[in-house]
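Table 4 source record.
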Amino acid sequence: MKRFLKKIFQTGEHNKIQVEQSVKDRFLKKGLIKVGKNSNISKLTLENESGFEDIIHPIVIGDNCTIMGIIALHSRGSKIEIGNNVFLGPGSAIFCRDKITIGSNVMISWGCTIIDTNAHSLKSKERKKDVEDWARGPRNKNWQNVITKEIKINNNCWIGFNSIITKGVELGEGVVVGCGSVVTKGFNEYSIIGGNPAEFIKKTE
């Protein structure tokens, strides 16, 4: 029995390594992603990857990262930079049209959303064709009237589960975001924040 269980475990680990390598090879071959040492992106889902093959490394991931969520590129100018030792939990998503920068030693729990755009115009007439255009692919969407602003999450931040980071936000070093928060503005370093919309609670270190 021990020998049998050992064989199953070894086979499972072998398959896991193959899956990880397969995912990396596919993304790296397309030139869409640059991945540092000892980073695990085997559970990464990369949306809108077609049509960006000629863009070199719009996504850069550092060393010792675990990426288990979704990354979506919404324009040919999209740029996502992720530092070292970053965790992106399952069910979390990064939607980028302009630029999203995530520093090192950042934990992003499960179910979080980071999006640097409104996604649609606030005026009903201007978003009338959005569903039809998007169904034909993100490159067909009219982004002209959509507000987009860069997001920056600095080193040592912790984003609690089911939180949302919206366009234009910059979080200083060491900011802690309480679970379920909606962050619509920037906060200074070592702030603990929470709520909808998120507000300052107290300082940490």
